[in-house]
User: Fold RNA helicase from Komagataella phaffii.
Amino acid sequence: MNRNISLRLKSCTSVRFASYNASSKSFQKRKQLETPTADIPYKIGSYASLKLPEEEKVSGLHRLVGQIDSFAQLKLVPPVRDALIKQIKQSTVLRSQNFISSTKKVKTEDEMNGLIIRPTPIQVETIKVVNSIRRTNKNELKVFTLAAETGSGKTWAYLAPLFHKLKIEELESGTRMEKSQIRSVVLVPTHELVYQVSEVVESVCKDLDLSAYRWDVDSNFKDFIGAYRNKIDVLVTTPAKLMSLEKYDDVGSLKSLLTGLNFCVVDEADTLMDKSWINDTHAALKNMRSLKDVLFVSATIPSEFNKVTKKFFPDSIPITTPSLHRLPKAIEFRNINASVPPYKGSKIKALAQALYAIHSDGTELGYEKRVIVFCNEKKECMKISHRLETEFGHDVSCISSEDAVDVRRSKILPFLRHPQLLEEGQKQTMKVLVCTDLLARGLNFSGIRNVILYDVPKTSVDLVHRAGRTGRMNQGGRVFMIVTNKDNSHVKGLPTVVRYKRRLA
Ligand SMILES: Nc1ncnc2c1ncn2[C@@H]1O[C@H](COP(=O)(O)OP(=O)(O)OP(=O)(O)O)[C@@H](O)[C@H]1O
Assistant:
């Protein structure tokens, strides 16, 4: 960081995050709204954007969570269980703060080191329900809507039953398993997610002697068709990219290409079922005629998504966790009021000061710090990152949908991988990523400790996704939201809502 600027900032104010006058009327009013005991859902915008399934449909599942403490208690073929545990261990960051079952109070040394992996609530529920549904009609379509808080291990919640079913089918059909088919597909909204999910899928497929294929912008049709002729066990792609297969002469029709496809996951379903994506998602699903299991997976259930799934799949089975629509408990949430001195209404100054405070707060010792800044509008991102770089000397990357996919990937990578160790005696470094949440949705940023919301998110859905890039899998994280006096009391009350674990609506 530019030394002059950091000194100026330091002299302006000590590390300062806004506080409110506790005697003011608005404070008193807010206090009433935030009564910790009240389990009334808390709205961010002017209307409720989130919806919960009926209590009686999920209460039995919630009871299950306390009863199961090990993957061994869940119905999974042993190679799948072993591969799952191996992959999770490889991907864990900062082992000592890894997920440890809350039902078990005494932590052994292995647990403290992250060597014992226990299923998270959403993993318990999904594996139990999807793997145990007994079919009267073996070919009957079953649709599941699976929703749990961000960073709670939803990827493995759907991959475990998917791999389990693939292995069971193989055992049942022996050597009669047909070639030239796609057996399952995982649909995600962005190329970044195709990459992230397929990395996990590919590594597990190797252990399970299955084949994975990533059909993405940089894939080549000749390779794809070669893989298809040998059988693709898991295809990872976006709905639009899947539909693009229709344009190749060798394919004939997408329906025939997808004959034999039994299992489909629609990951980040709240995005893939919203109005800008639904046409592609719907078109892709319509081409899958032999589906037996469809899993819609999401961190939130927006009202619109709830309406659409109810309309198309009235018998869908909800699988949700007790903490759905609450921010992860490991998150500490604070507001920064940009209307007060020294910012005097300048959000960019408030942001620069927050970054400076994070940079010098003595946390993450020995590691490069990484901070993610979310804005509401694409065009704002460029402006903000430019000013942070030129006026305040920060090391900033800005993701834009106009960047080529590989450029975007290289910008995001330093934030996805584990934090880098600094060399002995090296001065603290810090990288900043400025983006909108669309490109960051679902990305498993590894060990990110600080997120800044430059703009107040427009809905609870946006808030959940953005804040959820930190505090993943019970690792601690801080979220700072820049507010102004113009924001309403509901917005200003969010830190208390998060502290008391109130549900968002
Ligand atoms: N049972 C477990 N114990 C410990 N770590 C786990 C477990 N299951 C998954 N993880 C790890 O937790 C991290 C977050 O998982 P994942 O990305 O699946 O979260 P998610 O619920 O899909 O989040 P989002 O809603 O943001 O997409 C990953 O690094 C994953 O390897």
Residues 1-23, 94-105 have pLDDT under 50 and may be disordered. The radius of gyration is 23 Å. The chain is about 40% helix and 15% strand. The first strand starts at residue 142 and ends at 147.
